[in-house]
């Protein structure tokens, strides 16, 4: 039988799913020509040696595959001739089946830089590490408030750290996060944005006229107007009596303003409260105003 192949057993390249090994011919062929080499691999978790392949007598190199990523392996090579197999030349130490690069670190938390009722513009910072391989893409994922599932909504080139997500549903509450991708795979996701309501960023105020009908009331009665208002940012709302008298809360009037809504409660009306009540909504995009007549008999 031949002597074992001359060493050391060199591991020229290791990746997640394969390794390239190299050896030299035995110093003693045992008096008979070498017919080939037998290569085996050992997963350290199982401890078992299993066949990885065979090559001819003139080959000194072999690609061992497939390997299971992130497992440790030993390798060995035997020479064979017609008398049988040699002792094995074994690798000096186990190798970890992994690429010479890793997934990137996670990108910075995305920031919403602009939005309207169908889209958002996002920007984020690149990861602190690219994992040893260039970032090829960023993937933006979105989650609806009512769902636990993140879904991909945008993919941009790795040299860009911003993007526009379009086709959003108005009034939906959504969050965004970003992953960086290199040839090892995707990073962990970034931190997510705070909950964002899909809406206009700049929208001229509009006062809903539905509940603003003229009324005729008897002395001593009360009445409430409930008014919805649109606009972005949320408009500032004021009430006035006629053109000149700005109204505020007192024993006869109660005004309750909140975002996108205003109530005015007229309590124990007297005849001198007959007149024109005007609601005005103002924001940076414009102004809207509506009057309603209250007649007290």
From TrEMBL:
Origin organism lineage: Eukaryota, Metazoa, Ecdysozoa, Arthropoda, Chelicerata
Outline the segment boundaries, as ranges, of region: Disordered. Answer: 79-114
Q: Which PANTHER family match?
A: FIBRONECTIN TYPE-III DOMAIN-CONTAINING PROTEIN, MICROFIBRIL-ASSOCIATED GLYCOPROTEIN 3
Q: Where is the composition biased (Basic and acidic residues)?
A: 100-112
Q: Which UniProt keywords apply?
A: Immunoglobulin domain, Repeat
Matches recorded under SMART domains: FN3 (SM00060), IG (SM00409)
Q: Which domain of life is it from?
A: Eukaryota
This one is known as: Twitchin
One GO cellular component term noted in the UniProt record for this chain = sarcomere
- Cite the Fibronectin type-III domain residue spans from the record: 5-100, 106-201
Which GO BP terms apply? anatomical structure morphogenesis; cell differentiation
Coiled-coil residue spans: none
Cross-referenced SUPFAM superfamilies: Fibronectin type III (SSF49265), Immunoglobulin (SSF48726)
Q: To which species is this protein native?
A: Nephila pilipes (Giant wood spider)
């Amino acid at each position: 039988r031949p002597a074992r192949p001359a060493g050391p057993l060199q591991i020229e390249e290791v990746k997640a799913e394969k390794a390239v090994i190299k050896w030299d011919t035995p110093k003693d062929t045992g008096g008979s020509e070498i017919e080939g080499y037998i290569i085996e691999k050992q997963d350290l978790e199982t401890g078992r040696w299993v066949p990885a392949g065979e090559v001819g007598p003139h080959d000194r190199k072999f690609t061992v595959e497939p390997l299971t990523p992130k497992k440790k392996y030993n390798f060995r090579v035997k020479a064979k001739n017609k008398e049988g197999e040699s002792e094995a030349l074994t690798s000096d130490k186990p190798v970890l089946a992994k690429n010479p690069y890793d997934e990137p670190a996670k990108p910075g938390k995305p920031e919403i830089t602009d939005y309207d009722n169908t889209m958002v513009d996002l920007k984020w910072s690149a990861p602190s590490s690219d994992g040893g391989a260039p970032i090829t893409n960023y993937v933006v994922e979105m989650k609806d408030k009512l769902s636990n599932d993140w879904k991909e909504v945008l993919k941009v080139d790795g040299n860009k750290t911003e993007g526009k997500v379009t086709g959003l549903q108005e009034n939906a509450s959504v969050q965004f996060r970003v992953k960086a991708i290199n040839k090892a795979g995707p990073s962990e996701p970034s931190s997510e944005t705070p909950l964002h309501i899909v809406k206009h960023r700049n929208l001229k105020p509009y006062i809903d006229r539905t509940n603003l009908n003229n009324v005729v009331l008897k002395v001593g009665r009360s009445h409430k107007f409930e008014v919805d208002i649109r606009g972005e940012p949320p408009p500032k709302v004021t009430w006035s009596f006629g053109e000149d008298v700005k109204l505020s809360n007192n024993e006869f009037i109660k005004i309750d303003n909140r975002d996108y809504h205003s109530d005015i409660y007229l309590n124990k009306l007297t005849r001198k409260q007959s007149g024109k009540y005007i609601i005005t909504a103002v924001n940076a995009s414009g102004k809207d105003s509506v009057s309603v007549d209250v007649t007290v008999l």
